Amino acid sequence: MPELTARAAPPLAHHFVTMRQQTEAARLGMWLFLVSEVLLFTGLFTAYSVYRFLYAGVFEEASRHGVELWAGTTNTFVLITSSLTVALAFHFARLGRGRLAAALLVVSLLLGFVFLGIKAVEYTNHFHEGQLPGKYYTFAEVQGPGASMFFTLYFIMTGLHGAHVVVGMTVLAVMAVRAWREEFGPEHYAPIEIAGLYWHLVDLIWIFLYPLLYLI
Amino acid sequence: MAHENAAELEEHHGAGRYLAVWAALCVLTVGTFLASRLSLGPPWHLLVALLIAGAKASLVALFFMHLWDQPGVNRLVFLTSLVFVALLIGLVLLDNATRFPLANPPNERTLRFQAPGGAEPHVRPGERQQGEPGAIGRPASER
Questions:
Q1: Residue A16 φ/ψ region, left for φ over 0, alpha for ψ in the -120 to 50 degree band, beta for the rest
Q2: How far, in Å, CA of B66 to CA of A140, rounded?
Q3: Contact A143, A66 (CB under 8 A)
């Protein structure tokens, strides 16, 4: 889309009176979706709570000997920093500095790749060590009922979170292109704000996964 | 007209605040890492970890997700979801915690269950099919 027309007339759908109203409707819709995401993960956190309650000792051992603390801690910093760059991208997109916003989103994307890369290294190690769900569990250091359940939950929770990271990265890539084309400005910024909300939710969930899986 | 509304009714804070929130999140991450190395023991290690995670999540929700600046229904929607999170996790855990222990899946505690003194006065001779005490929940091959 040519720059000038995009800047001159921000896209206001005919069923909204003002841009502000349109932005608030979009925001509310996104929050409702995010809430459904929260409840999706709550199911997993509930399963985690039950099994940690039942197998407290084994979970502690599995976390201590089975997962790499450096990886979880590094990934926490990576995601927090990517949240910062996404928030800054929104800030600058709203000021009309689309190119800077796009650059910040690219940094966020790269951080997303770093996160997935570290996760891939971790998963590879788990496969080699036999730290796998159910009957595939062959990790000798931690045995007993519940040991494989820790890794079942670990894989489902980090796996679903990882899927969200991939989706979030896709959305951020689209936003980077749109920001680079100077589509956003002081009036029209809802898409990049909403994309940011999704990415921050991914960060939010990791903030709870980190102490529950790595720091038992 | 639309531009005036958007500009006046919503505060737009500078990049400095985002940086301050990021710094606070990093400090809290280091804090939760160090706290976990202290081996506080149950239940404090879990409570401290969740408290710090809650603080970090609040910072993200309030400032990165702008709930601090945007009053109204979004806050209500998010807080309502947290109520349901607490209900689901809380009530399910209460159920498990208050059950007769053997009604839970076999775990560290119930697998070592033995009748006091090894005697089982409530079991009549020949009534028990499970083998010796302590065998509950173990696969038959191990008994």
A1: beta
A2: 47
A3: no
H-assigned helices in B64-122:
73-98
B19, A84 contact by CB (below 8 A): yes
Give CA–CA dist A3/A89, Å, rounded: 19
pLDDT tens for B26-42 read 999 999 999 988 878 77
pLDDT of the residue at B124: 56
A30: amino acid identity, one letter: M
Chain B residues in contact with A205 (beta carbon < 8 A): none
Amino acid at A76: T
Taking an 8 Å cut-off on Cβ atoms, the answer to whether A39 and B2 are in contact is no
pLDDT of residue A6: 46
Beta carbons of A101 and A196 less than 8 angstroms apart: no
8 Å CB contact between A113 and A104: no
Looking at the complex, report in whole angstroms how far the Cα of residue B13 sits from the nearest Cα belonging to chain A: 8
* pLDDT > 90? residue B1: no
The ipTM of this complex is: 0.89
Q: Decide: A22 and A190 in contact? Cβ < 8 Å.
A: yes
